[in-house]
Each structure stands twice: as structure tokens, then as C-alpha cells.
Amino acid sequence: VSVVLAHLLPLLAGTCIHAALVERPRGADGWLRALGNGYLLGLALVVILLQLLRPAPQAAFATGAVLLALVVLATGVLARRRPLPVAQPVAASGPEPGWTRWLLLALLAWLALRGCSLVTEVALRPLFPWDAWATWSVKAKAWYLGNTWHPFVGFDAWVADPQARYVAAWFYPDAVPTLEVWFASAAGGWHVAAVLSMWPALWLAGLLLLVGQVRAAPAPWWLALVAGFCWASLPLVQTHVALAGYADLPMTVVFGAAVLSLARAALGHGRRHLLLAVLFALLLPAIKQEGALWLIVIAVGVLYLLLAARRRLRLLAIAGALVLVWTVLFGLRLPLPSVGWVEAGWGYLRTADGADLALAWRPVGSQLAETLLLAPNWHLLWWLSPIVLLATLPVWRALASVGWVMAIGLAAIVFIFMFSDAALWADNLTAVNRVLMQLTLAWVGWLAVLAALAMARRDRWRAALAAAAGGAAT
Amino acid sequence: MTRARLLAVAVAAWWLLVLLAALPLPWAPLRPAEVVSLAGADFVAPFGLAQVDAGGVHVRALHYPNGALQVHALPAIEAARFPVLRYRIDALPRALELALVFRRQDDPDLQVVTIAGPGAGAATLRLADIPAWRGRIVELGFAQFPGAQSVPPALAFEPFTLREAALWSPSWHGAVAARLGDWFGRRSWTFLAMSAIGPDTAMPRGPALPVLLAIAVAGSVLLALLLAGGDRRRVARLAAIAVAVAWLALDLRWLHGLQARHQGTREIYAAMTPIQRSSRPADQDLLRAALRARASIPEGDRALPVLVDAGSDFQRARLYYHLLPANVAPLNTVGAAALTQLEAAILVVYAPSRPVFDADSGQLDLLGVQMPARLLMSDGDLQVFRIGAPGP
Known about the structure:
A: mainly alpha, 70% helix, B: 18 strands, 33% helix
């Protein structure tokens, strides 16, 4: 029961925060958005509370539960006072077709079948994937069983401080292990199934917020449901749910939530969505180191949206060119959250934790193509993406900020895996897929919103043509 | 024929053509012209406790750590003439990996290829996809072993029976069955599955299904453009249906694989309580070693740093995890010299090759670094030392 509460309390708190500060839910799709985004906000709140207050790890749930209950009360009252949003505009493509109900039923059945397998796999199998027990759960297990928030440090500091602890990836961010402590303390012991129960919940949250946000575009239900099905059925995503413990799925869902909120802001649904996008983006470096890169990428999209429409492209192009020229000529040294100081220059990239990447072309194009198009990781996602993008070309401008985020994100992945020593992980088809996965929720959502906009545009044209024909006949 | 019917027939024909293209032998006879039957009773079992009778090879226990092996001598048959293997193993536990083993006349080394586990009834494998399947084959058999690092060896086994096997010459029957076996064969979870599905097993593979379905969808759209008479709505509808069918086909295949993997997990863990499950990870021997090492550390030394070394990265990392919440560090990362920087520490070594310890002088030689030490325990591959000055 307490593990269920450990999920419900953040869900309630986050949903109330979302309702109070961003959008009071109205209708089924409004609730999907609120619950999906709310679960993420609630988990973020848990991390912030535990990291700030530092209760004894074994008492983390007892302390946090009381505080979350207070947050639910306070934000629940605030949410009640917020006016309901205007009714969801009907998707411009007209009323829902009759088969939408059957699609919804089929999706629910599919979800129940799939969800049962995934949840029971997580419940039954002891912690399995390598990095889950070698990296992400190490801090959590040491903190929880030691009942102390031992600092994890580098070797020299470890030798000097008997309270400190050492793990090879000591510099990795703490959000995921902190959440593992939360669920372990709710379970009253280091019970792996309880600790890992967050991963199926995150998968579900990603599905809910994707369907809800796409629907708000506005898109017809069938399109939002199909988008949700496409993402949630991706084999690599499901593998990360079934073999829970890696930080890539949390990253995927939070990055997707940030980009889809940015899309809402770009569609003129209000600055609150922009703030939510910024909040989610700020969480990214706390999950995994590459979150710092995704934070910069989303910052470009936010800047694009905030700058005056007439000059923004020119301004961003000039800024980008200046950064590039400066980096090539003089080298660039930047502090990045959760990564530390990063030095970049012509032919090299160095990070504070000792990574020294030589930047030069690596011939791994065929491996990238194989993993995107031939391997069973992605179904037909990367085959269909160019077609959807081509078909929605006339409406790109409406979501240009998100388009830039996705383009720069994809370009960054290609650059990292084709122009640095990270090519090894593309060659052996390992990290490249996991990093690509982090884009998928946002990517599918972006394509679906573009499709909704293109359909709406087509219908407007049809209506205008029909009106013109009617006028001519009169 | 109406335009719509013509389009439907053309698209159906196109999908059939694409599926047929996935089969490597479209001009072969329906049934194999030549069959080399290998009766279960004619196999021998060099490893594993097995009983051979007219019903086949009944494997009753695995030989640790090699698993079980059943082989059948062959009269130097020509590999190219028999590109398909048909085999039937009843009640093979899902937690066991299955490998095909064979020996060529020109190479004394045994070739070992992991293959899909059979479901109910016979399974079929396209041998022509295996690069080493060439020349003349003098021996063929099957090996079974617990999945490396994914299942507890002691829990993975249930008795099973190798009934029969047969080598087939090219045929439609064999080609279709082998392709279905390739697409829907039973696989297990592996570490690489977190990064890539497909290359996570070393099994031989034929044409990638996503490519075939993408070609089928593209052709359907082209046909619609040609035959729909400029009706864009009909083209869009047909494209949507083609994409949906292709996506669902891929998803059903994935779901089938997911269920099979999940069933393997259920077979081992479903009947256990959560506490039993947590005490039965795939590496039970390492968990036991960690518990023994922890028990050997005197009460007064429990707060000391613990350095871990082992024979492989997996063993070292798992011992590290099992020893938590001790103040533990892997020796390979911090280096042997690190021990000299610490006033006192515990060293846990789990490896067949031991560090040189002179009990008389109390000196330990670890990778060329000398340090005073005391042996706390030595049990099989496990040794625990206290490094540094004697404790209080």
C-alpha cells in the first residue's frame, strides 16, 4: 500500500500543481495532460524535497509523504480557484469519426495486455541491466541501506574522507537514485520491484501526456491515440520499461514533456506552457549528463519563441555562427549543469570528468542506418518520419521553435556519434540507440501536432474553396 | 473489374510478392527432395546427465558449468545440399539457451551458434544463414546452457527431451518454416537489449522485417497513385491502412517476442516471494561470496574501505553491488597502489588467480605492490585480507 501511495502522492501533488499553475483540467484530454505532466512534476518535487531536507533515507517516505499531502491541499485549493479553460476547440478536421471509439477500446485493450506483461516483468525479475546495478542503483542502495546520504566523490576525496563513497560514475546526477530511495523507503526495505516500479509508471505518464498534449493542438482523438500507440509500442522503449533501471526512460519522458509544452506555447496556448517547458528542461541535467545538452537545445527553441518574429532567425544564426567561429579560433570553455566545465575547440572536446574526445569524421553512417531502419528497435518510425515531415511542410512555420529543437537535437546526436570517439558506441550499436530514444516522445508528438496542423489547413482550404464555389454559383 | 477492386488485388499481389521475396528459395519444390533424419535415439550425450532410448535423449541434469550436449555423427554430408535444419525438443525450459553445434571435415573445431528455442512442436532453422555452414559436415548436435548472467543456473533447468532432428534439402516448406522461425523464434533477455534489439543475440538472421514492410508500404502507395485515378482521398486511405498493417505486424511480432521473454521470467520467479526473488539473482554464487566476505570482516573493521577485485568485470561489479552499503570500491578503477594510500582497508578477491600472500611475513603482493596484510578468510575462489597495520 505504501508503495502505491509513494506513486499516488507525487501524482496528486504534481497534478494539483499543474492544475493550479498551468492549466486546470477540463475534459478527458485535459486530465490526461494533467496526470502525465503531474506525475513528472510530483517526482521532481520529491527529489527537490529530499535533496533539500535530507531526512534519514529510511524515513524519506514518512517525511516526504506529509509534505506532499500539504502540497496537495494547498495547490488543490489554488487549482479550484482557477477558472476552467474555455472548452477544447473541436479539431478543425471536423467531428470525430465513428470508429474513434473502437480505436480507443482497441488501444486500451492493447495497453492492458502490454502493461500487464511489462509490470509483471518488473515485479518478478531481480535488477538485471548492467548500468542499473553498476551505476544508477549504487548510490540509492548505499544511501538507503546505510541510512545516510553519503557523498559520492572521486578517488582522492574518497581516500581522505571516511564518510565519502566511491563509484566509477560518482559524478552522475542524483535525481534517479534519490527517487529510488523514495520508493525503497516506502517499501520499508531494499525491495527491487518497489524501487523499479517507477519505470512502468513513467511509460504510462509519457503515453498520457503525449495523447493529451497532441489532442490540445487541437488534434482529433484518433490522431492523438495513434501517436500515443506509436510511441508506447516502440520496442526499445518497452525494453527500458521491462528491464527497468536505466535513466534513459526518465530522460525520454521529461524531454518529451518539455518539448510538448514548448509546442503548446508555440501554438499560442499561453506563456504558462512556456514556463512549464523551461521547468522540465531545467530538470534534464539532474537526470543524466546529456540532459545539459538537451537543456541547451530546448533553450534555443525557447529563445526562438521569445525573440521578435522578424529578426529571430537572423539573430540566432548570427549568435550560432559567432559561437562556432569563437570555438574554432579560440576554444570555448563553458560550465554545464551536472557535467562541469566543458572545453571545446577545433578537433577536441573535453569534460571535467576526464572525457577527452577527438573530433573528426568517423565512418559509421551504415551502422546508424542499420540501427534506424533495419533493426527491430523502432518499428517504422524512422521510415515514416521523412514522409510525415514532407507532407506537413506547409505548416512547419507554426511549430518552428519545436522544429529547431528537434533538428538541433538530431544534428547533435549525428555530430557526437559521427564526429567523435563516441562513434564506437554507434559502431557497436549501443549508446546511440539509447540517446536516440531520448528524443522519441518529443519526436512523435511533434510529428503528430504537425499532422494535426496540416489537416486543419487542408480543411480550411476545402471550406474556403467550397465557399467560393457556392458564391460563384449564387 | 472496378477500379477499387483492381487496386485491392494489385496491392494484395504486391504484398505477397514482397513476402515471397523474403523467402530465399522461390523456385524450390514444395517438400524437400532429400532428408537426412537424425533420430533422437542415435544421439550421444557427452555432457549432462541423460538417458537415451527410442523416444530420444532425455536430459535429466546439466553438467555445471558446461550445460548439456547431444551430438550425432554424420557421414560427411555436403552442407550446401542441406540448407535447412528441422529439430524437435520437448519441454525445453525457456531459461535455457539453445545452441547448434557442428563440426566440419576441414576444421576440427566445434562450431557453436546460438539458435532460437523451439516452441511446441518442431522448429526450423535456415542453416544457409550461418557463415560457418559450408564444406562437409561430420558431426551435428545441440547444446543447452543457462543464459549467461540472466538466469540463476540452479533454477534454469527442468528435464527435457531431444526427440529428433532432420536436415532438409531446399524446399518451400523449409523456407517458409525457417523464415517464420527467424521472425518469431524464442529469444531471451540479454544485456545488449537495453541498447539494441536484434544484435542482442548472435542468432543467424535473414532479411530485416522492417525493410520488407517498408517496401510493401511504398509499393502500395505507388500502386494507389497509378490505379486510383487521381482520387487523393483513396490514396491517402490506402497509405494509412498499409502503414497501420505494417506497424501492427511489426508490433505483433515484438509482442510475441516480449511474451516469450516474459514467460521465461515467469517460469523462474513467479512462484517465489519477493524476498526469495531478491536472494536468487542470476549470480547467486557471487551473492553468496559477498555475504561470506562480509561475515568474515571483524566487527571493529566494518567501517574500513573495502576494495574488490575479481576475475572479470562482471564479477567485480556484481560483488561491489552485493557488498553495499559497505564503503566499497573496485580495485581496477582505483588501482592497487590505492591500498598503500589507505591506513587500513579490506581487500576482497574473487578470482582463480590469487594474489601472492606470505603468511609468515604478513606481506601481500598485489600486482607488484607490496603491503602488510592479514588473511581473514580463504574459501575456494574467495579470499579476504585486512590490509595495513593490525586493528584494535
